[in-house]
Structures
1.
Amino acid sequence: MEKDIFKGFKEYSVAEFFKKNRQMLGFSGKIRSLTTIVHEYVTNSLDACGEAGIHPEIEVWVDEIEKNEKYLVRVRDNGPGIPEKHLGKALGMMLAGTKFHRYVQQRGQQGIGAAGCTMYSLVTTGQPVKVVSKHGGVKLSCSLGIDFKANQPVLSERQVEECPPEEHGLDVEGVFGDTKYENSLQGVREYLKRTAIVNPHAAIIFNSPEKERMEYPKSVEELPERATEVKPHPLGIRPNDLLDLAGKVKGYTKLSALLQNEFTRVSLNKVKELQDLLPDVDLGMNPAKLSWGDAEKIVGAFGKVKWIAPATDSVIPIGKEQVEKSLRNILNPELVYVTGRPPKIYRGGIPFIVEVGIAYGGDIKSEGKGGVVMRFANRAPLLFDTGGCAITQTAKNVDWKRYEIKNFDEEPVAILVNVASVHIPYTSAGKQSIASEDDVVEEIRNAMMEAGRHVQKHLSGKRREREKSTKRKAIMRYVGQLSSDMAELAGNAEAEALKSRLTGMIEERFE
Amino acid sequence: MEKDIFKGFKEYSVAEFFKKNRQMLGFSGKIRSLTTIVHEYVTNSLDACGEAGIHPEIEVWVDEIEKNEKYLVRVRDNGPGIPEKHLGKALGMMLAGTKFHRYVQQRGQQGIGAAGCTMYSLVTTGQPVKVVSKHGGVKLSCSLGIDFKANQPVLSERQVEECPPEEHGLDVEGVFGDTKYENSLQGVREYLKRTAIVNPHAAIIFNSPEKERMEYPKSVEELPERATEVKPHPLGIRPNDLLDLAGKVKGYTKLSALLQNEFTRVSLNKVKELQDLLPDVDLGMNPAKLSWGDAEKIVGAFGKVKWIAPATDSVIPIGKEQVEKSLRNILNPELVYVTGRPPKIYRGGIPFIVEVGIAYGGDIKSEGKGGVVMRFANRAPLLFDTGGCAITQTAKNVDWKRYEIKNFDEEPVAILVNVASVHIPYTSAGKQSIASEDDVVEEIRNAMMEAGRHVQKHLSGKRREREKSTKRKAIMRYVGQLSSDMAELAGNAEAEALKSRLTGMIEERFE
């Protein structure tokens, strides 16, 4: 009996694992699954264009194959394309990619995105995805599947042609079951609209299953700054990260040198200070010999030293003007205000920036109810897990009445919040909501209040204008009667002249 | 420039992936992380004892190493132990195990559980876990870590001794950072109490960091039925599952034979019926040649045939008596009622069973507020993601007032709901809440209403008793006065005799 227990002991591949646990990749619920697919492809397109310094032009098609069940999704970009050497792995192998190991402000999941979509297509319709990649003068067309047992790409129907080197881009198309298209706040259309709002340098076109064509042309010329890899700050890491770094980065014979070169704000003087705090740890040791215990002590000492805050140039905001232009472009509001606040630090060592845009009036209400909160992390829209998100909660807790917004949920007001950081504090695996880190929440609140004050100015201006005009009208109603009464009382005055003088006085008063 | 983009293209291991995405394994938040660790070990112990036919005796220790930060967790069982050949992989390799491939009613995650704990220990404290396994006359002690790059176990400090073959079991101990012990509804203590409630055949002891010792002795002698692998029902599968089956199961030259032998309820006649519905598909084909298109057609035809419902003996309830005994044991209530309803089917092909136990009065309220809902899936307590769970929502929607429970949240009432199935419809990766499948929700509601009616009987009995006794007392108050008044009016009657006759009449009436 006991021997049988281990009979079935097996190893299985990560592709098999995610095939069984596809919810972990955002494939849960038909609507969310469709949005996830578009999100993964569009994110890859934006990131690839960003890295290659190209103005993104992205066109998305969603076609109904079977209502509320099966849809074709196609995403075509003008990015750098993918060379054949990497194409299979990029789209047909889990846990392969360029994004995983870097400490850089990024959008995407980590090397699963597009391969996850291929998996979903195979699992729900049995079809591989079709890819056309133009890169370096070569146009490669093929179908891509996954060998789940081996977690390896399966390439078929390969066709190679020459193409002009100035033509480049990726064009992916797949048919996905267990999906549903809905024109809701969590659907593809809203996802793309919001993506366009925070990427005004990109041109995005969406062809919906209802044969609508939505065009979001680019509204600014400048490309966003490129995200760069940054060195960690001593207050932003844990013992485990220090050990990882000591094991990964080669070429140092002394830990002290590694600390000075691989961290930001660690000077020779700071190393000395640390050494004084650590009589049992020799910072001159070989990094390869660093033990957990020592790493823990060093991180403990990090907490006791006074550090200059990390440089914040690693955080790349969308930009005040950019957000303003695209809010005007897309929502056509009567008022827009966007904060341009400096970056802040959370947990003492992790820089981040919060941008809040607020728009009032115009087409906002026609988009649904009032009080829209659009959440973004590193320019990627967050559409799910709304309730637990620090952005939503903070927006709820702001006393909007103070800013003349009497009923936030009913008035034509939209807030956009983008949190940018190398390390966004997500609440969970789904990466759809931001955790309530104190420093982050405080900054979101302050930015919202700043935005609120501007709306207040606008609205109280409007209110005073309205009140004035009401008063004036009320007084004006008496002018006729008053002038003729006065003319009569005075016996000889001319009613008309009197009326015109009175009117003049009132006009002057209420100008 | 473009060439640089792919410079960082890398593959990485599943262990590295989960190290970065530990929330996916339930390691999010300090309290939840600690509960997850205990859950993974205890689940493995219960499953191992179950498979070996052993009455589980499990002892759990949680010791504070650093308050609200670092705790030692030790779990010792009397299960079969793990032979050295499998020990490393079971505790130090992701995606290895016995549970992944089987279609069987099970508790645990899929081959990540214990290895995930080892990962968490390494990442938060740098320490491997310590293991003592007694199996087949050998006692093996060692430390176990993970080589993250290779996703391979690292075994050290290995010691092997002989031991009497009748001694067996596993004893795992680790130190885990980023954890917090709290005596709350989501903490280890509540987790173990609830585990004890639904596993009355197991003896569970918990030694808390506050040096309390909670003992939950076994309250029933019979071991639960063993979960067995079952064949799928045609209505419970999708094209992808059919293709998997056709690819995996060897030895069939004809698809029709595979259908008859690898599915439940598929007879020769049914195959003929299917063939008539599928003029373009030859069910006599070699299963290896099954295409997605044909699989899709076959699954479509499955939906058009009238099937006998699947056998439901694969679903193993805890049992009416068992739940009743343990609710009495642990909550000491004045009333307990447990439903003993037959299994049902959802989506036409997946059997499941719902057990609802209700307890009223006794120690329930002392455990916190009233209106406790204890959720379980295949006997494993669900403590997180409460809001979205079909069990919680259904409990909220039941009109408890009809059952004399005026304010569910305030009264001393506890409901236990266990959903058992080979395929629990979880809402998300965390496996902490059950999706609102119509058939499942309906059955939960019916079971709750059945339980409600029994509480109503009890409570309305109590209420009537109370009302009677109030009335009787009220009437009795008049008896003395009435008898002496009557004696006086009658002139000659004896007041005492009259009073005793009146009292007799009233007593009789209110008996």
Note: Chain B has a mean pLDDT of 87.
2.
Amino acid sequence: MTRTIGIGVIGMGWMGEVHSRAYRAIQDRFHESAFLPRLVICADAVEARAQAAQQRFGFERYTTDWRAVIADPEVEVINVAAPNSMHLEINRAVTQAGKHLLCEKPVGRDPEETILSAAAAREAGVLTAVGYNYRWAPLVQYARKLISEGQLGRITHYHGRFLNGYAADPNGFLSWRFEQEQGLGTLGDLLSHVIDMAHMLAGPITRVTSDKEIFIRQRPIPQPGKGTHYDVGSSDSPKGDVTNEDYVSTLVHFASGARGMLEACRIINGAKCDMSFEIHGTKGAIKWNMERMNELQLQWRNDANPAQDGYTTLLSGPAHPYHQHFNPAWGLNLGYDDLKVIEAYNFLSAVASGQQGEPGFKEALDVAHVQQAIIRSWTSQSWESVGA
Amino acid sequence: MTRTIGIGVIGMGWMGEVHSRAYRAIQDRFHESAFLPRLVICADAVEARAQAAQQRFGFERYTTDWRAVIADPEVEVINVAAPNSMHLEINRAVTQAGKHLLCEKPVGRDPEETILSAAAAREAGVLTAVGYNYRWAPLVQYARKLISEGQLGRITHYHGRFLNGYAADPNGFLSWRFEQEQGLGTLGDLLSHVIDMAHMLAGPITRVTSDKEIFIRQRPIPQPGKGTHYDVGSSDSPKGDVTNEDYVSTLVHFASGARGMLEACRIINGAKCDMSFEIHGTKGAIKWNMERMNELQLQWRNDANPAQDGYTTLLSGPAHPYHQHFNPAWGLNLGYDDLKVIEAYNFLSAVASGQQGEPGFKEALDVAHVQQAIIRSWTSQSWESVGA
Amino acid sequence: MTRTIGIGVIGMGWMGEVHSRAYRAIQDRFHESAFLPRLVICADAVEARAQAAQQRFGFERYTTDWRAVIADPEVEVINVAAPNSMHLEINRAVTQAGKHLLCEKPVGRDPEETILSAAAAREAGVLTAVGYNYRWAPLVQYARKLISEGQLGRITHYHGRFLNGYAADPNGFLSWRFEQEQGLGTLGDLLSHVIDMAHMLAGPITRVTSDKEIFIRQRPIPQPGKGTHYDVGSSDSPKGDVTNEDYVSTLVHFASGARGMLEACRIINGAKCDMSFEIHGTKGAIKWNMERMNELQLQWRNDANPAQDGYTTLLSGPAHPYHQHFNPAWGLNLGYDDLKVIEAYNFLSAVASGQQGEPGFKEALDVAHVQQAIIRSWTSQSWESVGA
Amino acid sequence: MTRTIGIGVIGMGWMGEVHSRAYRAIQDRFHESAFLPRLVICADAVEARAQAAQQRFGFERYTTDWRAVIADPEVEVINVAAPNSMHLEINRAVTQAGKHLLCEKPVGRDPEETILSAAAAREAGVLTAVGYNYRWAPLVQYARKLISEGQLGRITHYHGRFLNGYAADPNGFLSWRFEQEQGLGTLGDLLSHVIDMAHMLAGPITRVTSDKEIFIRQRPIPQPGKGTHYDVGSSDSPKGDVTNEDYVSTLVHFASGARGMLEACRIINGAKCDMSFEIHGTKGAIKWNMERMNELQLQWRNDANPAQDGYTTLLSGPAHPYHQHFNPAWGLNLGYDDLKVIEAYNFLSAVASGQQGEPGFKEALDVAHVQQAIIRSWTSQSWESVGA
């Protein structure tokens, strides 16, 4: 007997759409599951957006009041895709209502908010998930499997980064994304993914020393109604100061003894979405980049035949985790949105089984602790222990 | 006022699923459209499969009788994803019923069947579409745009191919795919895509000379219930003869005066889905490969600064056709199934507007004529004119 | 006791320089050899060029009369790098003098000249070599080894090509390279390399059908003293007709039963020196491109673990043939000129041992026979047997 | 009138050979120069090696006493390729003799030795050069030119690294390379190249914080006569401790305000010679990797046409610095040794003109100061100013 899980989605921007689409895809992509998502209600402060999302994704109803989603008796789990500034308040309300939740990343605008959300969830005993979607690429999961089986040997060092150009235009408006008071900059937005990926693949980070910089120090002050970071002003608009970091770089130690370098930047003229890792071990190495999410570079130490030593390029296919839920062939790409389907499936599986999955608020908390240590190191100009 | 288009899907194998999924995605991906697909009924000879598909994709009903789909008064358009051997009969019945249809490729098992289907559609005056899905990659459409604008100059030569390994295992069963009586081999299955792509990008092919070969001459005779080409026998199973081509290569002339080479093979140990083209013109060159469907290689003749001459790698993004319907970012991959959504959208747009779109049976007919000329050249050992 | 081999080089253009440099490098790169080249004399019709070459490469003397090179009693072997139009006459004189010779490719301007040169050498019983230099890349030699050991299984099909842009500028002068009376166009210049490589890697070609085209039909008539194909006229210069082929494409059968496609073009706006091959076999595949001559793509059929199936990129290193003569490390590139050193070494090794090596005039003759069949097929519009 | 420069080479290991070969090539590759190298004398403690080198490269004489090289009145410039442990003593003797010198890197086993060598050269007023050969790839020089012209805009951050596997085998002997007393580990051997490249391309580094690790903590104690780091012991040999770093990572600030990450490791199972940089600026980005030294990745911010935004892959050709001295064509690779020819040419040009060139001991000193700051940061666990 298939169990139905009533879902409410709060916030119908891009991520709200992606999550709604993902839930809707589960009955298709994971049709053999013992549960079925029911898209009960969606919320957005802008009524037209909420209404459009209802039609587009097939929610039973919509609202402009996010509290109505939580209060809805047919909603068992809540998906939080509202602006980051509202995450803490919503997360608290959801957990107080004893409902499970998937919160899009970053859980908090700063580590402290994430810690508060995590505490709230822990106290309430609800199940949580976080939108660290890059984890879910089949070849990333395959990399994880290889590493956990010890096939790379002992991990020696890890390189992770996220290079993105969404803020590369110096005339991009001074939106909330660029204001320290509204939260972290690149450390929150981009490096959080990098830290989480490093944790998943190489284990806990224990020590850090970090650097940061603002490369575009002033931006045009947004005109009313044009505040998103994708809009562009003119070069002679009045300007205000960017107050959070464009760039962050970090040296890290892992609990395992491995070393690492992490880096993120939001003003790249070059790569589009270079969310990538490169991992070296005593028996081999592995590389992946979101821009080619359907490929994995893999190399084994080949003592027997050094003439045939080299990186092998794997293409995503049915022998890799989850791929067969999307197509049965080799060389047919999965897309970005498919990662969100896997994410949603894993969250609902956790809900159906009552077992907390990964990544949940626990993993977001782990990221937050690393972020805190990074921020401390910016001031101390020295190495900082994570969680100390 | 949104117009609703009632859809019936015949055949619920992989392609039937992909098409059903695609229709279902239109209200999301193309939510601003003036029409809305309604998934009325699906059919499969295996009842369990039809029933499962109904649940999975949300059809209103299912049937084991494909004629019931055609007869259904709420079905306005039919999607034919049945086995190739049934295409002609179904296509005839659909067109006789005056309904529009999308037929998965190959329309016919051989060119003659395609010609008959095309004639039936033409006589009935119905709108048609064919599943040449690789056309729909945003960067392929972008390549088409560049070429049609003359940005590559005059096309000099075209290289197209499809290398696939689905039949690479010599112990893969002797399914219908390997029997001449059941239709063409690689010429029908793989080279049809290559021919259609060449037609779209470089215009009509007018002359050909071709070669073919069977590299794996015998295969295990399938045991009852294990007849698909993905199943594998043991090397000591009784074997039968493969009677259609594993490999086909062709030199071609285009009406424009351009020259070309086309090639396809189904027993590749190497590439997974190397459905690719490489086009040279008097001002530049362009390359694309399905294995990296989100990338396009582009080069301009750079007389002004030869030091900066080279192939540029474009990543699919919102400035390319259709991409923004899937995500608003650069560097976030689309997947294979997304191409089918674009295909379905274009088909339904044609239906909604009453205007025949591309690729329809007309384009399949063009492919069939090239296939016929290729087959003639196998016998004549000489160049053959297309359509003569 | 090291044997000294007296060398004369005829023609001190680019290739004459490259060959002279190569001989000079042997005492370094192959210092353990039992022979030592002695650069006796160089010749060029332009005295200043001959004199400059003497100083640059350390010849003992120079001459403007190529016959003096042949007559020189201290010259044991002759290196022919004169204009193609002089090859036959020089080759005949060399062989009549009973001296061994390395002739830069193409040996003849057309197949008939090559046949005559080959006959002359055979009758005289001298040792010969031909400048098919791409053979000598360490990773090409390694590919040859893998194939000959059967590691790719039975070769099924071969793709070879040479895309070059040396004549891409439509205002490049109408030099001798573009005149049929002066010899073949792309078939001689570029496809000869492709044919030779195919012969080496996949064995003799037995049947062909081919196409050709002139894409740039007129070019500026050269002004006196500006006749090389690298010089460029203005677009309003008086023009004359190009009379030999810019482009050639060919389908081939190999004696082994393998099939193939060969292609060459000299007016490419794109690749710079895409002299490449791609070989498929029943157990794997292999790819190489001169533009990345220090890399080889290699794939094995991986039944045991399809999840790790993919092309492996090898970098040239000391485990590959000849590499260690240039450096002892992995990942340190060899250069183009190094291939000529290996070529010269192999020629002199043959001379020292008295054993004819490969590629000699025999291999050039094999290429010529394929070229003849290609030319016949241009007229017959049909398949032609090689050597028939 | 061509000036002759008498050269002595001390140390005839691999680097001594490469340098000797390079000098010998100058009269060919830079034949239009106003100077001519004269290979006067070579020295090696092992007489057979010195003698072999004499024959191989054409030195007029050889010696086993390096002081004899310095004392030789016909030697004007000295090339130091002796073991690192002898550099300081030799450099001092050379400069005291008032002769110019090229010292292979690292100039000193530790920064202090480099500082002493630099001081000696400065006091003596001799001209110096250092073997930071990667600088000399034509496309690296081209990158330098683009950056210095401001074509990348203001540099924001720099990523440089050197991943090499020469010590990847855990059974590689515990040679001098692994002993702190014999000098730095990876910081000296590999990161020195990375620092120098960063200095050349992005200007002086002013602050650093760094990490290091020994990943293979014990290695087999070398047996007599088998002490090089390329030899391999058995896993049950007696072992001793590795006392210098396998791995070093560093965050850096440049004087320009740019930020950076530098990394090096000698125990890589993966890349072979990934000596690479990636530079981001406000107008574009640039990438280069020694493994593909004939390619450069270049991207411009493309506001006018984001659809055509992407990395362009340049191939080394005659429009790039120095390339035409090696061949006149596009797409024909230069090799590693060619970089040493350019290095030697630039050194001798400096000698001929009496003008100190780059990189000289001044640039090695700059590297040493960064290394000192890195070492201090290992202890202080904090940021350190360079040269403070």
Note: Chain C touches chain D through 41 residues (CB under 8 Å).
3.
Amino acid sequence: MSFDLAAYLAERRRAVDAALDRHLPPPDAPPAIIHEAMRYSVFAGGKRLRPILVIAGAEAVGGSVERVLPTACALELIHTYSLIHDDLPAMDDDDYRRGRPTNHKVFGEAIAILAGDALLSLAFGLLAESASLDVVKEVAAAAGTFGMIGGQVVDIQSEGKPVEARTLEYIHTHKTAALIRCALRSGAMIAGAAPETLAAVGEAGSRLGLAFQIVDDILDVEGSLEELGKTAGSDQRKKKATYPEYFGREASRLKAKALIEDAKAALAPLGPRAGPIRALADFILERRS
Amino acid sequence: MSFDLAAYLAERRRAVDAALDRHLPPPDAPPAIIHEAMRYSVFAGGKRLRPILVIAGAEAVGGSVERVLPTACALELIHTYSLIHDDLPAMDDDDYRRGRPTNHKVFGEAIAILAGDALLSLAFGLLAESASLDVVKEVAAAAGTFGMIGGQVVDIQSEGKPVEARTLEYIHTHKTAALIRCALRSGAMIAGAAPETLAAVGEAGSRLGLAFQIVDDILDVEGSLEELGKTAGSDQRKKKATYPEYFGREASRLKAKALIEDAKAALAPLGPRAGPIRALADFILERRS
């Protein structure tokens, strides 16, 4: 029996969306504007890849979906905060995200900055309610200057400059892969993964994360505004360092493919329970938006 | 024997500064710019009031200084992140803080935004290493939209508008008092305070926090650039709602004094061990900068 990825994703997305709605303050709770702004970006039609990876990480070691939902939400809140801050005029200065005006275009820069700050704070509150101190530590590290923020710093500093391959890899592994790896590991940790299983899941997560960003780069070159919900070719306009620019589109696709295979190889010891992660790996490679 | 507040503060400040230096990434750790930016604002000569309140909260229930130092640092990192973001052009647009150019004037807006984000993430990492999930939850709530961020949102929304007394109190209790209360409570929680002791400490913290902000408002009217390290009268220029503007300077001073007395009354059941908190309460009222 083949794994029905579309059904799996749809069901998990529904569960994640319902949990996000429960865990975010109501839109009319005062001060309403900040809660509206947080919800505007959280419910902007994201793929929910990170929370679904948390769930798949738990399932891979026999954990329950229900138990990891708050942690899954926390990872999505951190991802969303990073997008809101990245889009600010002082950073990437983007007007559109997922086909809609960016947070600061709707709520103004001050509220957008604070909405990002609030999502990050709420994420740690959720982790404290539902996970362990180890998971809080793991997420703080992945989100910090040796993880996601570090990648964003080097990305900004590299704009418009020629970069070496290792700088490009640094940006991608830190800006994107660190949180994706952390999502998979967090789910497995909460489900009580043994150390060697956790290491395997982490290996797979690093490779999935880098593959995800390489595919993102390729889609940015190939995609249209309609498909991506943001302006295609925006990396090039902003003179961002990308894999296709550096290695060419074909070599980049082969690299992504190899990373997905490596991720699957790392998961081999987990057996059939890692089926959802394997299916997500294929999804990451084959997605069109 | 009277309590030597100056010696107490100097000793605690030294311990906090040394711990902050240990817990912040080295300034040359890549990407260096973000670690320099974080350190620039953390070591800008703050009073370390919040970390010292964490310590005093622990001491009030017989806890050790050493044990709560990482949590003390975390509260200072959160305070510092909030100052960096508050000073941004999109927010209060301040060029000076503690007598030095603000973070974004030195490092640029993008790095300043990321330095704030990084300090918040690091704070939760520190809490996870040293405190309990209850403390993480407490801090996340105090820093979030029903605490500090909520106060900042209403503060920004109220600029240049006539505000009611209850809005003014909302801003002050949320923007400032929530984190000060949380500092005292966190120290007491880690030291194993009984529920009724924790409630008393929280009561005292709320009052100390509000008194602190009222005194801050008064100093802003009275102070000079030299004493405060920021432009005096800046609240008025920005049409910020303040206590002296609303109630007059004399009534505001009496209100602060009454709050300090209330705080001390709340601490009565704790006996002599709450001596440092009482001394800090006097310091909050009598400080000149």
Note: The first strand of chain B starts at residue 96 and ends at 97.
